[in-house]
Amino acid sequence: MSTDRRSFIKKAAVGAIGITLGSKANAMTAKSYSNIIGSNDRIHVAIQGLGRRYGAFKAPIVNKNNNIKLLYLCDVMKIQRDKAAANFTNDLNYKVALENDIRKVLEDKHVDAVFMATPDHWHTPGACMAMQAGKHVYLEKPCSHNMYENELLVAAQKKYDKFVQMGNQQRSSVESKAVINDILEGAIGKTYKATAFYINKRGAVPNQTKSAAPEGLDWDLFQGPAPRRDYTDDTWNYNWHWYGWDYGTAEMGNNATHELDIARWALGVELPEYVDVRSGKNQFLDDGWEMYDSMEARFRFPNKKIIEWDGQSRNGYNKYGKGRGTIIYGSEGSVFIDREGFEVFDLGGKSIRSNKSAGTEGGLALGGGGDLTDKHVTNFFETIRGKSTLAAPIEQGAVSQAMTHYANIASRINKPFEIDSNSGRIFDREAMALWSRSYEPGWEPKLT
Hints:
Blueprint: H1 3-11, H2 23-27, H3 30-34, E1 43-48, H4 58-62, E2 68-74, H5 78-89, E3 97-99, H6 102-106, E4 113-116, H7 123-132, E5 136-139, H8 147-160, E6 164-166, H9 174-184, E7 191-199, E8 209-210, H10 219-223, E9 232-233, H11 250-267, E10 274-280, E11 294-300, E12 306-312, E13 324-330, E14 333-338, E15 341-345, E16 351-356, H12 371-384, H13 394-413, E17 417-418, H14 429-432
Parallel strand pairs: 1-2, 1-4, 2-3, 4-5, 5-6, 7-12
Antiparallel strand pairs: 7-13, 8-9, 10-11, 10-17, 11-12, 13-14, 14-15, 15-16
Helix pairs in contact: 7-8, 8-13, 9-11, 11-13
């Protein structure tokens, strides 16, 4: 959206002021009419990545109250584009363009904002390309693949002055916001620790075997910024998460991002000064999963506060009674927070207050979506219009994301390390060697 247009949106009254409905207006089709009324307030969007997550954006996009026009559905896999187009057919009275190359989408000056729900290695490069093209970005987690990209993304947002909302949608939970505000104001005394957890029952994944890329897949574009290699079955369909570090960020980037963000928010801390990790592949020992599937991480902060992470991807024992959530400990009590609400306990462990959401956002289902994402996306739209502020601005999201990168690095080098909590830099040379990654020549993300 241009600066002139954005200024007009902020100042102008939306509607058909001064327009009389004469014979020509009455002769218009409903489709033509809808393209005029409120058109100066309309936001034109594209979605890049049409796998399991894109459907979560559908409800707020097609909601007439949000006044959005979907211009493009973009994915490197043809069947994904076709399925997504069919999914939107009954909700839109116009045809959406299908595209496999996001670079062509970004050339369209009519596109105001892009939703990015691609594999992890595309997130920062795609977001930077979009901002350089003048687009606002709704960026799914993880916002970055490594610490270099984490810093670059924040720098790009500042340089190009675009809104970048990170997709950690619990930041839009009314219940989470309310109880965290209470915690920060001393509701459970002085806080000192948070335990964040994720428990799932993921099964075995196929061992990789070299094969031709599936029909309809643009394998070169799928790889994008990653170094080129032969296709292995079945990389493109979600298993890229676990097949090494070319594309994924393991379960830390995939899910820990959410709960660690809540823990950090509730404790009022920024970057840690120390991280220690115990991790390994402990289930389905002979399958194709190449990452850790179990991780316990401990982050220490300058004010002696601690955040613990307990992640079990493939052992479904629910030792916390829930599949995911965050426990905040204070000198006068504790609070359990998840997407369904919160519960406050006194020092004796007695429940003294709770507030459960009537929402529909699930915690473990692939793709997810529901009321929290609806609110988060609508907040993004209203911020673009100048009527709100971002619930999850990228400069905050990137701080939480840094914790996942530190843990992954500690896991990969199999030792703890200290961090400069002001700059975010790691003192250990072996760890700093994993600050960035190798990129395909010509695809290196950078500011222009």
